[in-house]
Design brief:
Serine Threonine Protein Phosphatase 5, Tetratricopeptide repeat; 5 strands; mainly alpha; 3 domains; single chain; flavoprotein; Deoxyribodipyrimidine photolyase; lyase; DNA Cyclobutane Dipyrimidine Photolyase, subunit A, domain 3; globular; Rossmann fold; FAD; chromophore; about 45% helix
Length: about 475
Amino acid sequence: MSVAIVWFRRDLRLRDNPALQAAIEAGHTVLPVYIHAPEEEGAWAPGAASNAWLHRSLQQLDADLRRTGSSLVLRRGDSMAQLQALIAQSGAEAVYWNRKYEPATQPRDAAIKRGLREQGLHVESHNGYLLFEPWELATLQGGPYKVFTPFWRNALSHWRLPALSAAPSVLVSPKVDSLALNDLGLQPQLGWDAGFWAHWQPGESGAQEALEVFIDGALNGYREQRDLPDRVGTSRLSPHLHFGEIAPWHIAHALESQRSAGRDADIDGFLRQLGWREFSWHLLHHFPQTSDANLNPGFDGFAWAPVQPGLLEAWQHGRTGIPIIDAGMRELWATGTMHNRVRMLVGSFLCKHLRMHWREGARWFWDTLVDADLANNSMGWQWVAGTGADAAPYFRVFNPVTQAQKFDPQARYITRWVPELAALPLKSRFAPWLSPTLLAQAAPLYPTQPLVDLAEGRAAALDAYHRRR
């Protein structure tokens, strides 16, 4: 029987895996392979939190494969060279993979496909990551979208979910050399991620469990509760989606099966969030510079403040003196994630009150988020900075105190992540600098003043906005 390499990348699952399914249906003996080549990701090689998750996801994928009689072959180095070596060792006649869409990996994959085909191999790539290919939807003029609502309207008009496919029960693979998982060097040396795993279960089974928990719990009332950081009101599926441990159409199928008069609005609300994920990849494909450069060139002359390392570090580690901001940054450090509403607040504070370039925030999130996704991260930061597609206007400056009072009215989220403020009266937990005596007594080590006066920071941001060249 002929051998086919199935090259796993951002699709670390066995069910609903188009490349794996195609290789099996073609009658091949499957050789499952993962090649660690961060150097080929360009300027955006995966960060520490992503690597920590990847280690556990690969471990789980290998365990799942072993239950079928196979195992995951691990290699490190130049992808083409490693594929060539595997072809020579296994006698493989075909290579299958699911596509990646980053600006650095698309041309690499095209070159590999061309080179292998020139050597006479059968090569196929599939869409295992998105509901729509990034080039599939276009405006009436044939161009890319820059506004979400018409993009999503078009997507819904073409809504066709792929059929579900089961995981193979038996896979017999040829024996070839493999690295040990620890040889990939994915785990943080200092164990910084140790606290993550009380909150997460990487791998396909963890993704399935997260989906079931969401459907039974947070999906009910999702549209109203997704903005409240003091409760589990979101799906917590984003890292599983990022690593391809679950297919987006699998989630959509599961939600569609739950439709009823009382749940339609919540289901549609979550599907819309999947739509934003699709939109972000559409944007990055058509505007690949936006991982580093403003989509809106009107901000190219904007007077961002020079980076002051002390201020940036205080923001990074939750020492700004503004409780909702500090809570979000501490949650990120401790768990590898941050509530979406709070992400907007910490981003607005950095880009507007501190007036630091959105790239500073994007880089920190890239290194510390377990769901760090180049398209979503780039779009999210450009959205909050006002420089991207369908963005919040720059002159919309979130007031973190009033936002905390609105979305965390009992300060439960603040108290969880900034516990030294728990002894303060509720009102004082939102702006403790206004109660200096109480603050000194209850939390003497907490900053006595915010990094910047909120009114002055807002005024400076608006002045810089109006003085744009």
